[in-house]
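Service request form, structural biology core

Requester: graduate student, group of Dr. S.
Request type: structure prediction, single chain
Budget code: on file
Notes: please return the result as structure tokens.

Sequence provided:
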Amino acid sequence: MTNTQFVVSPTWLFEHLEDPQVAIVDCRFSLAEPQLGQQQYLTSHIKGSYYLDLNQDLSSPVGKHGGRHPLPNPDDIANKFATIGVNYQKTLVVAYDDSRFAFAARLWWLLRYLGHEQVAVLDGGFTGWQKAGYPVTDVIPQPQMATFVSQVQTEKVVDITAVKSRKDKPDVVLVDSRESDRYRGEGESIDKIAGHIPGAVNYPWREVTDSTGYLLPQAEQRRRWENLETAQEILVYCGSGVTACVNLLSLELAGISKGKLYAGSWSDWISY
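Core staff response, request fulfilled:
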């Protein structure tokens, strides 16, 4: 896929590795092994990239409600962005993972939620970078001192109250981003209760990419969502508000900018 506002190719990133206006973030993570992503980063990563951890950095501590990955405190995450050289509304952030954007898209969404539009994901992820023959390193870059003052875009997110009151309106669509078997309530491997929010339609997040982690062409992203183009509002959820961001990225690529994240998602819904 060619570069768009939201996606860069390995070639583009290689050509901008030394660009002071570009900050690279490694978002690799494993839900099954929470330490794995950081171990992988310490072993080998794209030169100049910093590591942000889904549990430690891109989420806040789990409570009774709010799901398995509540959104981080805006001031805390703003401070972290400042220390990795992200100047608010100036620096282009390029996020990558090795999980078909499962975690990189969370960072992409979070930055835009905080009012920072200059963010893209790396097409093909870390594997794509390596396959292209570009260099990796184990050198950890020094902390930076940038200025990041977030301006939370509250309209990009909804809570359980909003979902309950709006999901059945004729011009609102509720999208479940999980695999179809979990949506149907079969083979629930993570949450205590199986099933989906009544009225939700299923658009599995993995359908945004091919099996090797490259985004499907823009025309296919548009075709994927064509039935929802007339909706006034699209509320998107998954298990915990992480992989739903891949669908939100897909919606933007399709030119549909009315997607909102139900941040707590299924794990919040079943906590009541």
